């Protein structure tokens, strides 16, 4: 469950809001139940954007001094294929550096290689070149991605930020601190500087805090390689993306997958603040089915 509350000192009129809150489905994840509750109640229009995200557009008629968005989702998560029967490949068959993408994929790949922060590109490239060499003498593309992710984890201190937006990659390097989204952007730009297609991912991470209802949204980076498709790495925790992660939206730009975005019109100083809480619980399928049966009877 993901609950977001915006508070105002006086009633305000809400403009169109864009919500990216429904998990991305695939061969491992199926959305069993999705319930979106919004107060005041809007008219909802659903669409799929260019990145394949499920997006809801909320149009409001009623003014209010409070906007609450409650997103409740039940998913069925299958075991990962590689956990059941790992694909056996030789290291020599993995994508080397520099990466060569198939000709038919290049028009799409280019959108994931172009820098979002072109003014930072040279400094980010120099930072990657200054990193200590990886353990492997001739790392594959994926090994280099993981090395960069571990370096970000080891050099950038996590700092939870409530302010909207992201820091620039150079800003994060200069400060030595950043939120999960700041680290994801740094990793995205670092990988792009090496010619590796990378996208920004917004979602959730299962932690002790989220189990207790004190979690927050999370962010990481996905890289695309011809031999493995999209593979996620989370520099905030220094690990590959695992079953602890749940992707909600992906984009070539971090602004493309903000969970909630929109505008309001009201008197100056009307905005008081916001609250966000994420709760994640793992429930065996048989218990989930029993609970739904009881609720219907």
Question: Your description of this structure?
Answer:
The chain has helices at residues 81-84, 106-113, 121-130, 141-155, 169-175, 180-193, 208-211, 285-296, and strands at residues 2-19, 29-39, 43-48, 54-59, 64-77, 157-158, 177-178, 197-205, 217-225, 229-234, 239-240, 245-251, 260-265, 271-278. It is of the alpha+beta class and 297 residues long. Strands 1, 2, 3, 4, 5, 13 and 14 form a 7-stranded antiparallel β-sheet that branches. It has a 5-stranded antiparallel β-sheet with strand order 11-10-9-8-12. A hairpin with a 4-residue loop joins strand 10 and strand 11. The longest helix has 15 residues, at 141-155. The two termini are 23 Å apart. Mean pLDDT is 91; it is low at 291-297.
Structural class: alpha+beta
**How many beta-strand segments?**
14
The biggest sheet, with number of strands, parallel, antiparallel or mixed sense and barrel status, is: 7 strands, antiparallel
Report the C-alpha radius of gyration, rounded: 21 Å
Q: Helix amount, in percent?
A: 10-25%
**How many helices?**
8
What is the average per-residue confidence, as pLDDT, rounded to a whole number? Answer: 91
The multimeric state of the shown protein is: single chain
User: What gross morphology would you assign?
Assistant: globular
End-to-end Cα distance: 23 Å
Q: Residue ranges: pLDDT <50 for 5 or more in a row?
A: 291-297
Question: How large is the share of residues in beta strands?
Answer: 35-45%
Helix/strand order, N-terminal first: EEEEEHHHHEHEHEHEEEEEEH
């Amino acid at each position: 469950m993901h609950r977001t509350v915006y508070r105002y000192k006086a009633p305000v009129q809400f403009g169109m809001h864009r919500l990216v809150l429904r998990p991305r489905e695939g061969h491992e994840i199926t959305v069993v139940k999705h319930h979106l509750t919004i107060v005041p109640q809007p008219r909802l229009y659903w669409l799929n954007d260019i990145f394949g995200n499920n997006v809801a557009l909320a149009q409001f008629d009623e003014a209010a001094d409070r906007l609450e968005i409650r997103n409740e989702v039940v998913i069925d998560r299958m075991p990962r294929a590689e956990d059941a029967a790992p694909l056996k490949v030789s290291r020599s068959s993995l994508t080397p550096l520099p990466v060569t993408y198939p000709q038919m994929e290049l028009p799409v790949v280019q959108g994931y290689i172009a820098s979002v922060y072109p003014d930072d590109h040279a400094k980010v490239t120099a930072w990657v070149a200054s990193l200590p060499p990886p353990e492997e003498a001739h790392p594959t593309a994926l090994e280099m991605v993981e090395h960069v992710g571990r370096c970000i984890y080891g050099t950038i201190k996590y700092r939870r930020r409530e302010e909207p937006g992201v820091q620039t990659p150079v800003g994060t390097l200069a400060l030595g601190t950043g939120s999960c989204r700041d680290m994801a952007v740094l990793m995205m730009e670092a990988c792009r500087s090496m010619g590796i297609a990378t996208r920004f991912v917004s979602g959730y991470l299962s932690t002790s805090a989220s189990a207790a209802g004190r979690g927050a949204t999370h962010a990481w980076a996905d890289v695309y390689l011809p031999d493995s498709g999209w593979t996620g790495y989370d520099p905030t925790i220094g690990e590959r993306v695992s079953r602890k992660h749940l992707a909600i939206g992906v984009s070539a730009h971090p602004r493309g997958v903000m969970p909630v975005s929109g505008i309001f019109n009201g008197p100056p100083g009307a905005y008081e603040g916001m609250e966000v809480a994420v709760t994640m619980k793992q429930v065996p399928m048989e218990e989930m089915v029993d609970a739904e049966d009881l609720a219907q009877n």
